[in-house]
Amino acid sequence: MRRALPIYVACVLFVLFFAKTNSYSSPLEATDVVKRVLAAYQTPLQTTKSIFPRKIWQTWKIDPLDFEVRDSERARSWTSKNPSYRYEVLTDGNDLHYVETHFGPGPGGINRPDIVNMYRSLNMTIIKADLLRYLMMYIEGGVYADIDVEALKPVDQFIPSYIDEEDVDLVISVEIDEPTYANHTILGPKSQSFCQWTFMCKPRVPVLLRLIDHILGWLEDVAKKQNVPIGDIVLNFDEVITGTGPSAFTRLIVAEMTRQTGKVVTWDSFHNLTDPKLIGNILVLTVEAFAAGQGHSNSGNHNSPKALVKHHYHASLWPSRHPRYSHPAYGMVEECNWNPECVRAWDANKASFPSLPAEEQARLIAAHETALQEKDDKKAAEKANAEKEVADRKQTELLEACAGKLKELMTQEQEVSSWLGLATEQTVKAPADSTQIQ
After folding, report:
1. CA 268: distance to chain centroid?
2. What domain range includes position 263?
């Protein structure tokens, strides 16, 4: 340690220099820089040989009392299948307070003002959502699930009976297992990844703090390259995926496995995974566990005994706010959903498009735009029908409730009338009875 100390000091001075010269990212105090540099060399506090906290976490815009019907149904799937677990939702109204409390300098905080400042500075919803799940899971642990994820089985079934819970600190699942496309220009970075719309961990898992620090550094680099403050950075779809989403999540976890085992861990360890695999203290479940029914990666369907959750995707609107590459005539290759023939055709068409006559290019572009409009119209009609169904259902429920209440009131009125009639009859009889007694 003594020999390495000068290197640490040099690193701190180096980072301090660039922190001072970067006027466009959120300002860092000297102590913040020191803490972040030293964090890379320190193992965060973590309870070993422990069980997972019985907590279920979700994040959303609003309080659970104001959830839409579909969100309430998904939430109830978690509480009904796990009655002994605490359920909590962080919202747009209380998330900052949570971050300030647990990462600030006050009682119970871990004194990381750089994390608090970064979270305050962010304006992108999806980036804050990704970062928030890592922050709260690092502090308290438990189970995290996106708001549109339904529990199919109890959390107690996440870890197979033949694996000791005390030997596991983090439980994840394969999401995309398509290594054939590892070198594809667009699909490559997304072709091998773990799922982060649902995962489970114990408090203070070191890899999550490393992931958080990685994200902070990445965001500062982006702000510097774009020459703007953190709150004004612009990211496309792929940058979100690789910077804070599943790709970043996967890279840091694989690196942690390598660190723990002392052996280089590659995606080969998870390709075509048929049974849960424990590497170090990280348990990797099959793709069916958290990501069944995707139509790729041998993900099977939600009727599989291995399927633990179901992702409904209705809250996944963020891609529309972060553009991805879309060819003017052939659209997005992601629409192929990893189908080999479709991807090959898309690649070939894209490559040959520049050599086509201008008239043919214009025809193909017009045809694609027409198809997109028809698709949008269909979605709009489906949305309108769904909203009408919800409105009709609410109206029916209201009418049924009113009818039930009216029936209840009529029954009560009949009971009162019967009671009054009986009382009147007894009153009429009373004088006669009194006369007979005299």
Report:
1. 26
2. 46-92+134-207+226-319
Say if 311 falls within a structural domain: yes
pLDDT digits (tens, 9 = 90+) for 151-194: 999 999 999 999 999 999 999 999 999 999 999 999 999 999 99
- CB count in 10 Å sphere of residue 298: 15
Token pair, residue 322, equals 């972060």
Q: Return the closest-CA partner of residue 103 out of 154, 138, 144.
A: 138
d(CA 301, CA 317): 23
Taken in order 62, 64, 65, 67, is the CA torsion positive or negative? positive
* Average pLDDT, integer, range 80-102: 97
CA distance 159 to 200: 10
Q: Is 28 left (phi over 0), alpha (psi -120 to 50) or beta?
A: beta
**42-80 tens-digit pLDDT:** 444 454 568 999 999 999 999 999 999 999 999 999 999
347 and 202, same domain (yes or no): no
Whole-number pLDDT of residue 38? 46
**What is the DSSP annotation of 153-214?**
S-GGGSS-TTS-GGG-SEEEEEEEE-GGGTT-TTTGGGSEEE--SEEEE-TT-HHHHHHHHH
**Is the full-model pTM beyond 0.90?**
no
Q: Say yes or no: 153 and 231 in one domain.
A: yes
